[in-house]
Design a protein that fits this description.
By secondary structure, this protein is mainly alpha-helical. It starts with a helix and ends in a 10-residue tail after the last helix.
């Protein structure tokens, strides 16, 4: 695999760390800024809102620019947002800085996925995406716990300065490792206009792919958002043990991400259907597995693995369906991921509020996974009616205009 994928993974590691570390720092931030924890929780929402707005907007506005320059610029915006977070004098300025930090998130992963697939042969495209996402999953294993401990001992501002430093390292890596130039191939497509980029998102298959992401990852977050009370109230773990168990989730997510990339290069559809089916099965078994400590640890690991098996297939499927605007579609998929985060947590919360029990969010998540399977089946039927079956990697290779190593449009 090209060494340039390491630069993308470093950027993904920084983004994954800053996205999730705020959840562990909420008490510290609330105490320092003299606000309530629910009010501090809006800092998490501000970041997510930045992702949802910034992902399609920045991808569309930068569609005609060099992808190398776009990735470096997005990471520079990421550094600025985290540095401003560290220096924020009060709650309102920190809220704005968190929103700014979220803006480049989706576009970076979206453009990065297109760059990653452009640097490898068709039969390795899914693996290239999974290697970029590896930075995101490793952030849950190492980045977030270390950054949380740093914030607890050195102050939460030190955490965001450290994340800014990771962003600077990512910029240096991108500048050093990503190819600077390319030679357009014969028949190289001209750069798409903003109108052309947006027009590519009007097709039904693209929206079905995005809805699959919302439902599939909504299933994950319906359960994962409430996994701490499940582990403490149902499995009997002490609060001090939860951090280690969440690291097990990251281990499972990392393994599932790498497995999904390898399997999707052989069969994207089968990997997607298999991943969603496995996720539904794990969530159905969650109430049973949460009855003892060892099985609860297994459940958390399997949850991460089953959910992230679908990551690379979903990203590639969206890029395939919007072949005229892969960067925009890929970025929109990141916005869909964050909608899944918010929507899944809301649906899981409804089951708790209704009095169905501590583990009921997992069963709500299972329902969302089944819904994702249904949407994926409809998408398959639509594809089958429109054109004869074609290997997804070849579809991407034939429609995405850039040859291997190309970073421009």
């Amino acid at each position: 695999m090209p060494l340039a994928l390491l630069a993308l993974a470093i950027g993904a590691f920084g983004i994954g760390t800053t996205e999730f570390v705020m959840m562990g720092l909420l008490p510290d931030v609330a105490d320092d800024l003299h606000i309530s924890i629910p009010t501090a929780g809006h800092l998490v929402s501000a970041y997510a809102l930045g992702v949802v707005i910034g992902a399609p907007l920045l991808a569309a506005l930068t569609a005609r620019l060099s992808r190398r320059h776009v990735l470096i610029s997005l990471m520079a915006l990421f550094v600025a947002g985290n540095a401003l977070s560290a220096l924020a004098p009060g709650y309102d300025s920190l809220l704005a800085a968190r929103f700014l930090s979220g803006l480049p998130h989706g576009a970076f992963f979206g453009v990065g996925a297109v760059v990653a697939t452009g640097m490898v042969p068709p039969h390795r495209k899914a693996r290239s995406v999974s290697l970029m996402f590896l930075g995101l999953t490793v952030a849950n294993v190492a980045g977030v716990p270390v950054a949380t401990l740093m914030g607890q001992h050195l102050g939460w501002r030190a955490t965001f300065l450290a994340v800014s430093a990771i962003g600077v390292a990512a910029i240096a890596s991108l500048a050093l490792l990503l190819p600077r130039h390319h030679t357009p191939s014969a028949g190289h497509a001209p750069a798409a206009s903003l109108r052309g980029e947006l027009a590519a998102l009007r097709s039904l298959p693209v929206w079905l792919a995005l809805l699959t992401t919302v439902a599939g990852f909504g299933a994950l977050f319906a359960a994962y958002s409430y996994v701490t009370p499940m582990l403490m109230d149902s499995a009997g773990y002490a609060e001090s043990s939860v951090t280690l168990l969440l690291a097990l989730f990251g281990v499972g997510a990392t393994a599932g991400n790498l497995l999904g990339g390898r399997l999707a290069d052989h069969s994207l559809r089968r990997t997607l259907f298999g991943g969603l089916s496995s996720l539904a099965a794990v969530l159905v078994l969650f109430p049973l597995l949460m009855r003892s400590e060892w099985s609860a640890a297994l459940a958390v690991t399997l949850l991460g693995m089953a959910a992230f098996v679908t990551g690379s297939p979903l990203q590639l499927m969206v890029m395939e369906k919007a072949s005229a605007a892969p960067s925009l579609a890929s970025s929109a998929n990141q916005a869909a991921f964050n909608l899944a985060n918010a929507g899944g947590a809301w649906i899981g919360g409804l089951s708790l509020a209704a009095g169905f029990g501590t583990t009921s969010p997992a069963l709500a998540g299972a329902g969302l996974a089944v819904l994702g399977l249904g949407v994926a089946a409809v998408a398959y039927a639509v594809d089958h009616r429109r054109a004869p079956a074609t290997h997804p990697a070849r579809v991407i290779a034939s429609h995405v205009p850039e040859p291997a190593g190309t970073l421009h449009r």
